[in-house]
Amino acid sequence: MKLMRVGPKGAERPALLDENGVIRDLSGHADDIAAEALSDAGLARLRALDPTTLPVVPPSIRVGPCVGRIQKLCCVGLNYADHARETGAPIPEEPILFGKAVTSVTGPFDDIETPRGSDALDYEVEIAIVIGKTAKNVGEAEALNHVAGYAVFNDVSERTFQTKRSGQWLKGKSHDSFGPLGPWLVTRDEIPDPGNLDMFLDVNGERRQTGSTRTMIFGIAHIVSYISQFMTLHPGDVIPTGTPPGVAMGMKPPKWLKPGDVVELGIQGLGKQRQTVLPEN
Asked: CA 5, CA 206: separation in Å to the nearest integer?
């Protein structure tokens, strides 16, 4: 299934995309794409529905982030060896984890805000894991059983805030609009091998990132198992898993995002996003 949330910001309702590309309203069968709805039982109930019996949603409706009521964003940094090299960082021996404020999450076609004082705005196409079942101290062999599905994520970053304003990466990762998520949550049964998906990102039609989840240092099952050793993962938690090379930070000179730029990105089987960068406000 491809599960969505549509409607105005803060008032999104659950929906699904049927096999013909028609958006169908799920609000009569789930209160949100969150919590219990993401469990195996919850997904099975939604999967048993006949999409043709569900109300049609106008295609012009705003598409919101595909997961609601997210408790935490636990991100993995420098998870592609070639990206680590382009930033001048050593290849990590264990997954590097960092937080991103849940208030950064936005829809896949919403604008990106330029923070006040920003001079190094960047992009990162990533596959995000969405947890469906509570995970604590799980082994790799069973880790994927705790995954509801996957989605496209743009880990928008302000590099000056991230690297030159002291402390951890959180400052450069958490501004409002820095977490476009979606357009869909694709359930794990539709993605048998999340470790073999092509991905791309363009800025103003120029290809900046071309990559594949094949080149991740730490795979999906390892990431879920690893993080669950340090914190309990709950249904609806989102784990962005790192980005391939081609970010603005790695270019010489850097090609930072600027107001008016259009960012387009996507991952095989998971859909595409498009954002426009707004001026500082």
From this structure: 30
Q: Residue 47 is inside which H or E element, if any?
A: helix 40-47
**Angle subtended at Cα 140 by Cα 83 and Cα 191, rounded to the nearest 5 degrees:** 70
pTM of the model: 0.97
Give every CB contact of residue 211 below 8 A, 6+ residues apart in sequence: 80, 125, 198, 199, 200, 243, 244, 245, 246
Q: What is the pLDDT of residue 263?
A: 98
Q: What percent of the chain has pLDDT over 70?
A: 100
Mean pLDDT of all residues in 44-55 = 97
Tokens describing residue 99: 């937080």
DSSP sequence for 125-171:
EEEEEEE-S-BSS--HHHHGGGEEEEEEEE--EEHHHHHHSSS-THH
